[in-house]
Amino acid sequence: MVEYNELIFEISRPGRIGSSLPESDVDKIDLYDKLPKHLIRDVQAELPEVSELQLVRHYTALSNKNHGIDNGFYPLGSCTMKYNPKINEDVARFEGFSRIHPYQPEETVQGALQLLHELQEELAEITGMDAVTLQPSAGAQGEWTGLMMVKAYLEQKGETRTKVLVPDSAHGTNPASATVAGFKTVTIPSNENGLVDLEELKKHVDHDTAALMLTNPNTLGLFEKDIVEIAKVVHEAGGLLYYDGANANAILGKTTPGKMGFDIVHLNLHKTFTTPHGGGGPGAGPVGVKKKLIPYLPVPRVEKDGEKYVLNSDHPRSIGRVKGYYGNFGILVRAYTYIRTMGPEGLRQVSESAVLHANYLRKKLEPYFEAPYSQVCKHEFVLSGSKQKKLGVRTLDMAKRLLDFGYHPPTIYFPLNVEECLMIEPTETESKETLDAFAEVMIQIAKEVENNPGVVLEAPHTTVIGRLDEVQAARQPILRYTKEKAAEREVVKS
Amino acid sequence: MTATYRYLPDTKQDQEEMLSFLGISSTDELFEDIPPEIRLKGELNIPAAIPEPQLLKKMHELASQNKNANQYPTFLGAGTYDHYIPSVVNHMISRSEFYTAYTPYQPEISQGELQAIFEFQTMVCELTGMDVANSSMYDGFTSLAEAASLAVASTKRSKVLISKAVHPESRAIINPVSAGQGYTVEEVDLAADVTDLVKLQEQIDQDTAAVIVQYPNFFGSIEDLAEMKKTTEANGALFIVSANPLALALLQAPGKLGADIVIGDMQPLGIPMSFGGPHCGYFAVHKKFMRKIPGRIVGQTKDEQGKRGFVLTLQAREQHIRRDKATSNICSNQALNALASSVCMTALGKQGVRHMAQLNIEKADYMAKRLQEKGFMIMNQSPFFNEFVVELPRPVKEVNAKLLEAGMIGGFDLGSDYGFDNQMLIAVTEQRTKEEIDQFVEVLEASVNG
Q1: Could you tell me which residue ranges the Glycine cleavage system P-protein N-terminal domain spans (chain B) (predicted)?
Q2: CA-nearest residue of chain B to A285?
Q3: What is the ipTM of this complex?
Q4: Geometric angle at alpha carbon A266, from A264 and A268, rounded to 5°
Q5: Which neighbouring-strand residues pair with B132?
Q6: Choices 3.30.70.330, 3.50.50.60, 3.90.1150.10, 3.40.50.1820: CATH for B349-449
Q7: Is there a contact between B88 and A363 if contact means CB atoms under 8 Å apart?
Q8: What global pTM score does this model have?
Q9: Which of the pair, B180 or A42, is modelled with greater confidence?
């Protein structure tokens, strides 16, 4: 393939255009007749000027420099990079879903409201909650929404509690969301088995504890088997339990956060429910709650009134709006389509396969890497590159070496409590052949570290670009294209 | 378990081989760490699986219960608009190398996405006249709330002034955010269809972190940013402008009128209405706030051979590094919609985006004049872009019902959010033809007389 390294601005030529709009069918206007001069644009925005084919070639060339799930295995732990079904993409683009306005009269969007209402009920069933809001845009916004409900609930009870407890293995969003919601974060260390240390937890839980945020299975892929006791400890002190649904792919149809004792749950539809990650978004982060928190759910809520579906904002104790309109509807359509495709048995098999695959791969790799928590895992597991580090090769190097074989590496250096961590989540949609082939490559890399470390240290060898200077990127930030910078580049080239 | 689900590849033999490798006889043994008392006994109570052909039919039926803008010309705007989206946009964002990828953490195999974001950042800077833009945010509303948070954090002041002419949902969303972070929000009243500058001067003080206005504002009117900047600057507050990116093709860039932060939603440029989401917030700042900007940012750098490449940068601000000290809890952006918007801006191009904006301003102007000729009162006293407010002699709801009968979606009722009974906010984009506009005016006229 011919190398392509141009920016869209660099192939732009004055006078070209990539679209056709009609001429005006109404009277022309001179802006200077309508607006004061200082509010009229004086310098035109330098947007690209290319033909339609040039545009298509440019973005196609860019796509060729990108690895997605459709290109190959993507065992990025905690992100659930499973197959994104094509029917979901088609359905979300139906004009009856994509070309409707959020403020249309309710009677003109009954299909959309019905979909939202049914999705709310199904997600409530899947999580064991009593009601669900579909408003939050993503997991982090779901966390924040959940914590704001905790705050409102406590205030209603006349309590001000300031602490949110978070295990040390938690996602970074947990403590960040707690701060943004106005709480103080207290970190709870894990025990030697990688689970929440119940004794440590008891030390920190008190009358000032608003909530405990927990992922279960946790980010090590381990099920917090003391969860019933943990819930009891927090509830007895008057706190609430928040379930980070990032790892819900392990428990569909097997158990629910509701049964575990959680009061609030968010789900990442872009993980468990196959909506595409899109290179970083858009996602969706619905939040489910137990009965006592229902009054605090964001408004408007989608409700059924007889045979009609309605949007109801008349909930005086609601925390208000957390997102424009009704959430990322296009994403919700995709998740709904997926749930309809799978049904209850299908969803249960999703988790059974996801967990089987993770354990199979774990057992295949454990002889070659340090396994800090060698026990049955759920949908993902962690390995440590500590053995390889002693030989002078870091986890980052092994990750880069995987690129040479067409794999996206696992999540690395997370969770923070595992040295040189590799976090592997194979998902249920990969075939046994893929798992076997990946295992072979990992084993080959482990052997290379011993016999030929240079090939790992200098990796990647086959990608369009080598390792990039991230320090320079941060020290002397170039965050946009300018003609002057382009000119500098020409000098460097010549 | 045989491979009865098309997304689950395990055959019975695969499963047996994996189980036997693990030395167990059933997947149930892998779930024994879940205490029995919290295991589900039966299946989830959700509807049964539907094969693809029937499911497509069902989804078509559900979609057909919604009246879409293709069948029903829409005159609704109020933050979400029915604009032309070039066909190439959908084709480019349907490249699954883009849409099935995660956040570009491995730059060597994510150069496509990273470069696309770098180009998006550049286009946003061009339109807004600002120095630095991030890779996108959830939507314009959350961008606005994040901008307020930035202002509060950087000025160490605790009051934010927001014009009542800012979108009601922006003003609604900022409330729980401010409650979480402990700053107060005061609204600045209207003087007719724009922000009341006298009130603004009265309310602003040394504790004001920011003044937030919308450009064009919720009523379509074009606020005089230059005047507001004077007041804001004199009091040491930051000036935050929420701007429609399409309007910026013709309007003076907020950056040139003194904005410190410019935010908004890219929806008008390449993103379908989709019942309100997903859209795509943008966030642009003056360079002095470069290291305080929330969300992901892509920067240009070099590889070992000196070859140009792109990486996520300035990550020291972010939650996965800073945890509870991060500048924001947000870790995702709307990358795919930012891509859609980039492709749309590229297709329209430097000339096309101006042409589109010009069509909007002309069509809205035409419709307003037609309505005035028929004796309707247009409430905007300032120049407007593609939206304006008309006063009707009857409730908007009734008029909208008539419009629906005639096969059109009417405008936004200003009664509930502003108490402006019988006032309708009408948006006229380039999608609306002269015939549709004329027909709308006729129905309005008839509904008044009938």
Answers
A1: 6-444
A2: B332
A3: 0.96
A4: 170
A5: B285
A6: 3.90.1150.10
A7: no
A8: 0.96
A9: A42
